[in-house]
Amino acid sequence: MSEFNRSKPEIDFHDGEAPTELVIRDIEVGTGAEAQPGSTVDVHYLGVDLETGEEFDSSWSRGQSINFPLGSLIAGWQEGIPGMKVGGRRELVCPPHLAYGPAGGGHRLSGRTLIFVIDLLGVS
């Protein structure tokens, strides 16, 4: 399946104010099965801090996709992945309340607006 032989995405530096709501942008629309709320998804992803542009996590860097029930992921993913089709690449910009909560919330990314680029490899 050549559509999955993609390279690690690059994220452009965000200019302007951080959004206060979830921003969903399809970079490439897939043609496979569609993710539904409650699906288990197999994804490759890259996450960066919107303010610094610094990468904080990447399945690409580990060389292995991850498989998760959507219900166990941050709210931005729970809202932003359903409707995406296998083979697609989508960018999500998640403000703190849809990521790891407000500053001081105990997670190292609390209070941060995060950008994710997600490749949907499979849905079950």
UniProtKB/TrEMBL annotation:
Domain PPIase FKBP-type: 38-124
SUPFAM superfamilies: FKBP-like
Keyword entries, A-Z: Isomerase, Rotamase
Protein name: Peptidyl-prolyl cis-trans isomerase
Gene3D superfamilies listed in its UniProt record: 3.10.50.40
Taxonomic path: Bacteria, Bacillati, Actinomycetota, Actinomycetes, Micrococcales
Reaction catalysis annotation: [protein]-peptidylproline (omega=180) = [protein]-peptidylproline (omega=0)
Homology family: Belongs to the FKBP-type PPIase family.
The keyword Isomerase appears for this protein: yes
EC number: 5.2.1.8
Natural source organism: Homoserinimonas hongtaonis
GO MF entries: peptidyl-prolyl cis-trans isomerase activity
